[in-house]
Amino acid sequence: PTTPTPKPKTNKMAGDSDNPSPVRGIASPRGSGPAASPTQIKGEPLWEVDEETLNSGACGFTAEKIFCNNSASVAYTYDDVIMMPGHIHFALHEVDISTQLTKNIKLKAPFVSSPMDTVTESKMAIEMALQGGIGIIHSNYSIEAQAAEVYKVKKYKNGFITDPVCLSPTNTVEDVIDIKHSFGYSGIPITDTGKMGGKLVGIISNRDTSFVDDFSVKVSEFMAPRDKLTVAKEGVSLEEANELLKESKKGKLPVVNENDELVALIARTDLQKNRDFPRASKNEKTKQLLVGASIGTRPEDRDRAKALVEAGVDVIVVDSSQGDSTYQLEIIQHLKETHPHVDVIGGNVVTPTQALHLIQAGADGLRVGMGIGSICTTQEVCAVGRAQASAVYHVAKFARKYGVPIVADGGIKSTGHITKALVCGASCVMMGSMLAGTDEAPGEYFYQDGVRLKRYRGMGSLEAMQKGSEKRYVWDNNKTAVKVAQGVSGAVEDKGSLRRYIPYLIQGVRHGMQDAGVNILQDAKEKLYSGGIRFEIRSPAAQKEGGVHGLHSYQKRLY
Question: DSSP strand E in 104-240: where?
């Protein structure tokens, strides 16, 4: 028998029709790569790089390779890693950055303001929620004062206002002015009892009191009477009530039952806020803004949690520098047993071991980060912590098995850092210094060397500890003779209003996601763990090269 003549070998290129690589028509393990893209050239899907090239590192390395197969045992920060670009087949406005804060709370923007006394009070929390994020009210307050801050956020924007301030016909102009100064509005329903649930007899607005000089005049003499009012009946939908309000062109729309008793109120300003802030984070039923608050792990914090829940808080953050403690496990269990409808975020943690214990206790979310904030000295003082990119990747990957989202807390200095945190597995980022210089942050501006600044301090600084944050770092109730600071006090530059700053952050993150070839944030994790998002480690010289360099001088403007 004759031996068949062997066919000559030819060098096949990626894309040749009989080449086993690429694989066409099935999902690519490279996620953001060509097979996942609808883009075609001459009716043919985009070619894929051959496996030899891919495995050589020419296209970067998988997160598994960077963070897990780590022979040097090195932990990485955000600056240490850089993402490789992906294929773009979508417009910038199509990038969806909505995400889960906890198992049950979804946000349209992955931004959380830190529970620090120079960052988040009610003003910050309101604006964060309007922009699609959420604010966490700090606990350097008395129980009553912190609950009052939460209440301010919950009452700022509503669909149906179910407990409006009311007056009776016998009240005076002076009472109206007092309410205006205390609550910031003067559109007040008048009931026969002066309380919610009384029979509606009229309403007063700012224009009704504008020309009244005698503050002792009774409300009954200048209010708009019941027969002149447009009202909605109990059971009306929010959409129908809003239409009535638009048609009447009034500032307030009372909602009454069959006995003409006041059961709710709708304000025109709330309609305007709905129109101006389509991303707003709000409860789907009540239309109230979402807000969180922090507590410690001491016995009295159970009373604090109860007051916060009564004020309407949506999520409680158990605030501790090291979250894996008996004290935190006990309070998480207490919160989930006593207030099962309120989500709880535990932390802070940086390892899967820590995370597992909090998940076992019932945490609905985890806060990741230890000693990496700009004002934090925990790693320096206590020699415990972890580089943030590594912490986020490892904890997020582990917590994903239990369906628990994580919040990357600290170490954020730019939109690039936010993007890296999100593609490393975080569902949200918590920011302190990034937000501390805004108009909505507590404190007054001051000038130093011609620069407009605001005070900013770590909750582990001695100044903050003296205000109550010591419980975040010391767990027992015994008086500590010597306080060990784990933070510093400083100042940050003016960043203007959140109404301009948050849209800038959102757009910056969208640009980063687009360049990485990710159009849906929720899908980023699938691409991360399947190798679709690839990274490299940057040398110190590469990090320098990646920033502004080679200029005599320059001006850096954010927006």
Answer: 106-107, 111-113, 134-137, 188-191, 200-204, 224-225, 232-233
Q: Which residues are catalytic?
A: 376, 472
Give me the pLDDT at residue 301, please. 95
- The confidence score (pLDDT) of residue 97 equals 97
What is the layout of strands, in order, in the sheet containing 534-537? 61-62, 534-537, 81-83
The pLDDT-based confidence of 459 (bands split at 50, 70, 90) is low
pTM of the model: 0.76
Cα–Cα distance for residue pair 372/431, rounded to 1 Å: 12
pLDDT of residue 32: 41
Residue type at position 515: D
Alpha carbons 35 and 46: distance in angstroms, whole number: 7
CA-angle at 323, arms to 99 and 369, nearest 5°: 55
User: Strand, helix or coil at 372?
Assistant: coil
Tell me the Ramachandran region of residue 74: left when phi exceeds 0, alpha when psi lies from -120 to 50, beta otherwise. Answer: beta
Tokens found for residue 23: 């694989």
- How is the beta sheet containing 451-457 ordered, strand by strand? 445-448, 451-457, 489-493
Q: DSSP state, 94?
A: G
| Six token digits for residue 29 | 């393990």
